[in-house]
Amino acid sequence: MATVYLDELFLLNLVVDYLLLLAAGRLAGEVLCRPRLALGAALGAAYAAGVVLPFGGFLLHPLCKLGAGVLMVVLAYGHSRRLLRTGLTFFAVSAAFGGGVFLLQTFGSRSLALDGMLSAAPDLRLILLSATVCYILITLALGRVSRHSASGELVKAELTLAGRRVELTALVDTGNTLADPATGQPVMVAEGEKAAPLFPPGRAPTAEELRDPPALLERLWAEGWRGRCRLLPYRAVGIEHGLLLAVRLDGAKVGGQEWRGLLLALSPTPVTDGGGYSALIGT
Predict the structure, then answer these.
(1) Do 183 and 111 belong together in one domain?
(2) Structure confidence by residue, pLDDT tens digits, 142-181
(3) Structure confidence by residue, pLDDT tens digits, 111-143
(4) Pairing of strands 188-191, 279-281
(5) Are residues 16 and 120 in contact, defined by beta-carbon separation less than 8 angstroms?
């Protein structure tokens, strides 16, 4: 009987499940929230560990396996309106990875699975390497299928202006091509209400003012913001020629990356319909 080390079994499945959820999200064009991915992977790892515990044999029932997979997807992408598509993608990616493991078993001398679960012990490094290679191959081979979809990652954005500071959750959106005409670097688009702390008390633009950018620009210029603000033209679905008020920030840290002189465009409407973010920035 093979010896199974519970800690190695948990770690192995944690890494592999994280990569599978990550690959599924990228292929389905989902917004990636790393903590939620880790939570879903932890559930999968705990399920794999539970299988080898005493009286854990019932977990090998197909319905239990299916339920565990569904819960993993819900934990990782439960905030998405495309949950079904992401879930089906996850099971397809898992099947592809399972085929890779079977192929390794066919040409290798050791079994890499125990009762359908990845086993650790002597093959830990081999399986982790195989999982990474499979992740790369799957995303490269199937990535074109989802290239048309809006995809990105949620990151924390720390913005500073005239000694004032605000933290927002931003989506790094590869489909957002709005750029600063002066520097060519991406422009961050944020909900005006969320960016209000960057302005002096009582002087933040209202939603009504943001709908009339020229008048708002005139008001801010009169208050001494002439070197800070400008109008930024943009195009979007249903909007051929639009204008946003943009403010040049003193500093910005987006996902750990420092940005100097970043333009922040203020949107009068929400930038998402429930995706958990309040700002967008391109790459």
Answers:
(1) no
(2) 554 444 344 467 888 999 998 999 999 888 877 778 888 8
(3) 455 455 555 444 556 666 666 666 676 666 555
(4) antiparallel
(5) no
Query: Structure pTM?
Result: 0.56
H/E element holding 43? helix 34-51
Q: Are residues 108 and 165 part of one domain?
A: no
Instruction: Give the burial class of 100: count Cβ atoms within 10 A of its Cβ; 0-12 exposed, 13-18 middle, 19 or more buried.
Output: middle
The dihedral through the CA atoms of 58, 62, 64, 69 has a sign that is positive
Task: Give, in order, the Cα–Cα distances in Å from 195 to each of 153, 191, 220, 266, 268.
Answer: 20, 7, 15, 8, 11
Amino acid in the structure at residue 185: Q
Tell me whether strands 117-118 and 229-236 are parallel, antiparallel or unpaired: unpaired
Residues 106 and 218 both lie in one domain: no
What domain range is 124 assigned to?
Answer: 6-146
How far is residue 178's CA from residue 184's CA, in Å, rounded to a whole number?
Answer: 9
Residues 68, 47 contacting (CB under 8 angstroms):
yes
Cβ neighbourhood burial of 272 (10 Å; 0-12, 13-18, 19+) = middle
Domain count, the chain: 2
Asked if 178 and 281 touch (Cβ cutoff 8 Å), the reply is no
- Cα–Cα distance, 241 to 224 (Å, whole number): 28
Cα 101 from Cα 88, distance rounded (Å):
20
Residues 238, 283, 146, CA angle at the centre, nearest 5°? Answer: 70
Strands (E), 101-209: 113-114, 117-118, 152-161, 164-173, 188-191
